[in-house]
Design goal:
With about 300 residues, the chain is mainly β. It is built from three helices and 16 strands. The radius of gyration is 19 Å and the shape is globular. The N terminus and C terminus are likely disordered.
Length: about 300
């Protein structure tokens, strides 16, 4: 792992100058454009992700709009609070030589966040802009090769760290929080898979998440961590928060794949009763789509 990134007043001040003074023009440099979007690794990108259950007929967790090159230009981002998505923040994305500016929808200079992109096309850090939102925190990232290996979140002057682990097939199998002085037993997310069943592209986000992960989730919405798409079909998700509080423990089943092998829907199933709790839908836009978003409804 590379050395952890650290925030400083100098970095924050420099970022604000970039947000305030730099024209947020769409990235023109073709070489940098190819490096700065990890979405390029896939030919299909997520147009929207939603769920439904007996009490909620349908809720969109996030929705993306893309330019012809496959870069996200707009995102309606679900904001987590208390483990659930309770609101949505609409942002425009401006790709520049410095990175990605997330501005309030319909504005040019009101930057909520700025993500610094390395020459390898990986996000080094994402920091608040000149119009910060308290629900989105400064976050930095570490990598081992092409895989995210750790994230570091600055909250109330302290740093929270989580580590990513993968199996030998490339499936993410756990995200483990580092212990802190206040939480001796760290939290953990664990995933299980059907090791004999694969899909061409997948996306899952059924687990409850902390609000402090909103900046990370935003980057995941726009496809900047394709390594977190598993190879095999996911069959279970378990979330244990600090000091052994079990927040979530569900099975995943009835995965629906389209003709190209992309995951377009799956069910959350209670592990004891076998009852279906909710349904998730993944709508994709592919580079071959000529007329807007791919309108798969997840019911194929």
């Amino acid at each position: 792992m590379k050395k952890s990134l650290r925030y400083s007043g100098f970095v924050a001040g420099t970022a604000i100058i970039l947000f305030s003074c730099q024209k947020a023009d769409t990235l023109k440099d073709p070489d940098l454009a190819g490096k700065s979007s990890k979405q390029k690794k896939n030919s299909c990108f997520i147009a929207s992700f939603s769920y439904s259950n007996a009490g909620v007929p349908g809720q969109t967790i996030f929705k993306n709009h893309y330019d012809p090159s496959g870069r996200t230009t707009e995102v309606d981002a679900g904001v987590f609070s208390g483990g659930s998505v309770l609101s949505t923040l609409s942002l425009d994305l401006k790709w520049s030589a410095a990175g990605i500016a997330f501005t309030k929808a319909g504005t040019i200079t009101d930057t909520v966040l700025f993500a610094f992109v390395s020459k390898k096309g990986q996000i080094d850090r994402i920091v608040p802009g000149n119009q910060p939102d308290p629900q989105f925190l400064s976050t930095s990232f570490e990598y081992e090769g092409d895989q995210i290996s750790a994230l570091h979140i600055t909250i109330a002057g302290k740093t929270e760290t989580s580590y990513f682990n993968y199996d030998n097939k490339g499936n993410p199998v756990s995200i483990t929080d580092a212990p802190t002085a206040d939480v001796a037993v760290p939290g953990r997310i664990e995933y299980e898979y059907a090791t004999s069943e694969k899909a061409k592209q997948q996306f899952y986000l059924d687990e409850p998440r902390k609000f402090s992960w909103n900046s990370f989730s935003l980057l995941q919405y726009i496809g900047l961590f394709p390594e977190l798409q598993p190879v095999n079909l996911r069959t279970a998700t378990k979330v244990t928060w600090g000091n052994n509080y079990q927040a979530y423990n569900m099975k995943i089943g009835n995965q629906q794949l389209d003709q190209e092998g992309k995951l377009v829907g799956y069910d959350i199933i209670h592990p004891q009763t076998g009852n279906t709790i909710s349904h998730y839908s993944v709508n994709w836009k592919c580079s071959s789509d000529n007329n807007g978003q791919n309108n798969q409804d997840g019911n194929n």
